[in-house]
Amino acid sequence: MKRQPSITLRLTLLFALASAATIICVGGFVAWEMNNHFKEMDVDELGGKLELIAHAIGETRSPSARDTLPGRLTDALVGHHALSADVRTQGQRVFATGSARFPERVLASATDSAKITRTSLRTWNDQGDTYRGVAVRLPSAIAGAPPYTVALAINIAVHQRFAHSIRWAIWVAVACAILLTSLLAWFTARRGLAPLHDIAQVAKNMSAEHLNARLPIESVPVELNDLAHSFNDMLSRLEDSFRRLSDFSSDIAHELRTPVSNLMTQTQVALSKARDAEEYREILYSNLEEYQRLATMIADMLFLAKADNGLIIPSREPVDLRQEVEGLFAFYEALAEHQGIGLAMHGEGTVLGDRLMLRRALSNLLSNAIRHTPRGGTVSVAIGPAANGFVSVMVENPGEPIPAEHLPRIFDRFYRVDSSRQRTSEGAGLGLAITRSIVAAHGGQTRVFSDTSTRFELLLPGLTAPTIQTGDTYSAQNRRNSPR
Prior knowledge:
This protein has three domains: 7-164, Beta-Lactamase (2-Layer Sandwich), CATH 3.30.450; 218-308, Orthogonal Bundle (Helix Hairpins), CATH 1.10.287.130; 317-481, Heat Shock Protein 90 (2-Layer Sandwich), CATH 3.30.565. The chain is built from ten helices and 13 strands. The chain has helices at residues 7-58, 69-76, 104-108, 157-192, 194-204, 225-272, 277-308, 321-338, 355-371, 431-441; strands at 83-89, 92-97, 122-126, 129-138, 148-155, 317-320, 342-347, 350-353, 378-385, 390-398, 445-450, 453-461, 473-475.
């Protein structure tokens, strides 16, 4: 695969080409203006000499005075070595001076206007020299005499040598400008791209153990502020993800170690001596409980893995939340009575979603609430409308509040606040994480509030919800922060 040129090289070449093009354009404009200036000088000089010749011809008012015309023209044009003149009448040369030989095309282009302009000038080469001239017909002052054809020319070799030197100077300036601009562009590009090299250095030194490096925003140019902020945000997300992954690995190892250790211990005890069939049956029943615990944990972990990769696609059907909660109340009624806990519900609402998945999310919240409600308390469920066509489901239980520092992580996998809130050994700490994944798959939100009581709220799209929101998790301490 062909390697692409570096940004520094591209900028260097771009600046060099831009400066060369600019100097060439300026040089071309200067040369064009210089040529026009030389033409204006030639027009002025030729015009002045034509006036002298016209004056001399105008003073020739008799045939006898015609013989003195060449002398008077010589006196009038004396000292102008670069000037050539040719005065004719009826094809006969009356006067000639200078080295120029006028082509027939120049003489044939003679005009009756005595005013010389740049457009009336003609240019030709003769014996290695370049001439610029004009031909004009002037009337004779003698009545009935034919007009004179006056041809004037200036040797422009001096002009050409000067223009040639200017062109050489322009090319030298172009070469020097390309070299100088290339050096300046390279230096400027290197300095300008230094923040990108810093970003590359930070990325090069980044590893799972060194994710706390950040780019200093104050030293980054304004144009790269967004890139630096995005890079730092990415590092923050990576650091948080690695931390969570590390915690998750530690937690899952800890959670799996207990049932596996129990299975190994019971198996070793069973093999330590001969036992009757009933004793083996009891050991197998005990092992079965551990296997069921492992199977449940693995199934939950697979569910969360699918959720992380967007593989959970819930069906969309109307789900009566009140009916689902009543069914769960009937399921948990015996457990609640055994623990001396009441169940209460008010409100109603219908949402679009997968009935089984939503029932699982609600079941996780109810199970969690019953587990952390003291004897004599009541778990209440409130269903009602929320903003933007969403439906709110609030599951509230009294008891010890959750400290504020734990609220942002309450939905993390295997996360437990402290040992005092683990009243039983049921569950592996994945219930709330699964609930959040289910709600997120439905385009809703999960939120928690904890002060005098603890309230978990699910915001789910109702039948009239205009759009599906992202399933982010929001944590707060006060219920007054709730949209309800």
